Amino acid sequence: MRQGFPVERVEQGSIADELGLKPGDRLLLVDGKTPQDILEWRLAESSESLVLTIQHADGELVEYEIEKAYDEPVGLVFASPTLDKIRTCRNRCLFCFVDQMPAGMRKTLYLKDDDYRLSFLTGSFVTLTNLSEADIERIISLHVSPLYVSVHATDPDLRRKLMGNKRAGELLPLLKRLAAAGISFHTQAVLCPSLNDGENLERTIADLYALYPAVRTLAVVPVGLTGHREGLYPILPGSREFAEAVLAQVGRWQQKALAEAGTRFVFAADEFYTLAAAPLPPEEDYEGYPQLENGVGLVRMLLAEWEENQRRLPLRVDPPVVATVATGVAAAPYLQPIIDRLNQIAGVSIKLLVVPSRFLGGQVTVAGLVTYSDLLQVLPEIEGTLYLPAVMLREGRDLFLDGYTISDLSQAAQAEVRIAGSLKEFLAAVLRREER
């Protein structure tokens, strides 16, 4: 009996949707062959014609001949993002965030993935320590580029120590080999005070910059520490002085790279600016936000979006709007002036609700790690409709980190809960009555 690849979701309005494909259907063959993994599926999907053999949930086998535009997606989202098994991490990083998570969160959050295919397709960071020679040859032959690589340190001994893997020290020769074959990279260094900062960070930046333009960017990111580090390697939290030193170091390299290569190359995550109480760089300094998913420029993008939209705010909203906006500790200083300005509109009453991450504890302050349990602690403070940023939920789903749903929160809060994917989306929702 052929098993195939189960479909988890069908994108609305897509080719698959028009064909009547449903969650629970299974992809068996593409052009008469079983795809090896998600890369083969994506290659086949990009063509202008293909034949899909689908086994529907009721067992019926149907062949679908599809004619479409080049690179137009079919609209199938599979239960496994790689079709086959996700490749897991073989490292024992001293700062691993998964090791710091308490029990009671979504099961998938405890999976340590380290899959180069997901890196290429979704921008997730990988260490490249689990590649076989066949994997390397496949990356080269399929031109799987760019890849997003967790470097942390280029000194071989230090990288082995940080990652608990003897193969971790082989990174630079591998990057050079892939670069020679035309593969490019976005890289990151998770910075741990007194471990890979200072002179070690200087070497890391220098080594990666020497590989520019194959190495397109480097993001310097502060280590995330929860309150659940019992028995783990002792890592110091970042201080204001630490953040100031990192920003100065990154700034010097940006000036050098900009003068020599026309790019700033290395970028500091927003959290360093918050920790140092330093002003954010102007929008042009982020060069199109290539490391946005790493928290590099999220706040600046928010402020730029606000600047664009605040000129079109109404003087009055009728009927009145009463709402609460929940966020994490880190974003609050940037959001509060926006909320204050909105409250100057007649008929608008919006409250900014800052939600501490008690569930994870430690130094966690970002909105994306606020859980349902954290929100439960502040229910009495909710007024009107509750708005949450989309980063608090699993992409494409309504699940919080600890496995609860938006419906669970709405029932507990006895309030309407709405999700906003951007500031523009939030403003449109809040001011919708005025826009009609």
How far apart, in Å, are the first and last alpha carbons?
A: 55 Å
Average predicted local confidence, pLDDT:
93
Number of helices: 15
- Note the run of SSEs as H and E: EHEHEEEHHEHHEHEHEHHEHEHEHEHH
The CATH topology of the largest domain is given as pyruvate-formate lyase- activating enzyme
Provide the CATH top-level class of the largest domain: Alpha Beta
Q: Report the biggest beta sheet as strand number plus sense, adding barrel if it closes.
A: 5 strands, antiparallel
| Percentage of β-strand residues | 15-25%
Number of domains: 3
Uncertain stretches = none
Q: Mind telling me the C-alpha Rg? A: 24 Å
The helicity comes to 25-40%
Give structural attributes.
single chain, 436 residues, alpha/beta, Pdz3 Domain, pyruvate-formate lyase- activating enzyme, Rossmann fold, 5-stranded antiparallel sheet, 4-stranded parallel sheet, 31% helix
Describe it.
- This protein has 436 residues and is an alpha/beta fold.
- The chain has three domains: 74 residues, PDZ domain (Pdz3 Domain); 198 residues, pyruvate-formate lyase- activating enzyme (Alpha-Beta Horseshoe), CATH 3.80.30; 132 residues, Rossmann fold, CATH 3.40.50.
- 31% of the residues lie in helices and 18% in strands.
- It has 15 helices and 13 strands.
- The chain has a five-stranded antiparallel β-sheet with strand order 4-3-2-1-5.
- β10, α11 and β11 form a beta-alpha-beta unit.
- α8 crosses α9.
- The longest helix has 22 residues.
- It is globular and about 60 Å long.
- The chain starts with a strand and ends with a helix.
- The model has no long low-confidence stretch (mean pLDDT 93).
